[in-house]
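User: Hi! I have a protein structure encoded as tokens and I'd like to know what sequence might fold into it. I'm fairly new to this, so please keep things simple.
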């Protein structure tokens, strides 16, 4: 029998599925603060180490440049450094760092004579730069006098020769040797 229309009884409550047949509820996301914290710490430590490495590289570069740069701070210093490179160390490329035009013909010839003489006598000369004196001509030009002494033991006898040289130097972004002539 059917209940009369419009009565409350005629309405059927919605059918619900039993709870055993429902799909399982999605699990709540697990908290991950531990992993994120570790990742953040590692990122910060890595960044600090990278900055320290960059700072060390920059410091090393600056210190290397200061140590490797030729000292052209004064007329006498540049002449001594030039003579050390040209005659004592015999490093022509290094010697050019101290000159105006790359060569000082008279001193280059003198160096070649020293080498020839060493070969002839089968000895090695010890070269000393002595008595370096500066006389300024102007704020950017100067004259430097130096004694170049060559010493060697020949046949068991110590011998030495001294030559006085005059060098013209100019301040061209640092002092540089432009000319050299043998005085005596």
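Assistant: Happy to help. Inverse folding works backwards from shape to sequence: for each of the 184 positions I chose a residue that suits the local structure. Here it is:
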């Amino acid at each position: 029998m059917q209940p009369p229309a419009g009565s409350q009884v005629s309405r059927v409550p919605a059918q619900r599925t039993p709870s055993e047949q429902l799909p399982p509820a999605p699990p709540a996301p697990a908290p991950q603060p531990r992993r994120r914290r570790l990742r953040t710490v590692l990122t910060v430590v890595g960044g600090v180490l990278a900055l320290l490495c960059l700072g060390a590289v920059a410091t090393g570069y600056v210190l290397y440049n200061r140590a490797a740069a030729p000292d052209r701070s004064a007329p006498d210093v540049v002449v001594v450094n030039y003579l050390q490179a040209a005659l004592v160390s015999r490093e022509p490329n290094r010697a050019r760092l101290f000159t105006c035009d790359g060569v000082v013909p008279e001193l280059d010839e003198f160096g070649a004579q020293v080498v020839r003489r060493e070969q002839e006598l089968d000895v090695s000369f010890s070269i000393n730069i002595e008595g370096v004196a500066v006389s300024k001509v102007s704020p950017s030009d100067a004259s430097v006098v130096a004694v170049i002494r060559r010493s060697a033991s020949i046949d068991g006898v110590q011998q030495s020769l001294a030559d006085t040289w005059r060098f013209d130097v100019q301040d061209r972004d640092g002092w540089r040797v432009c000319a050299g002539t043998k005085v005596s």
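A useful reference point when you look it over: The chain has a mean pLDDT of 85. Feel free to ask if any position seems puzzling.
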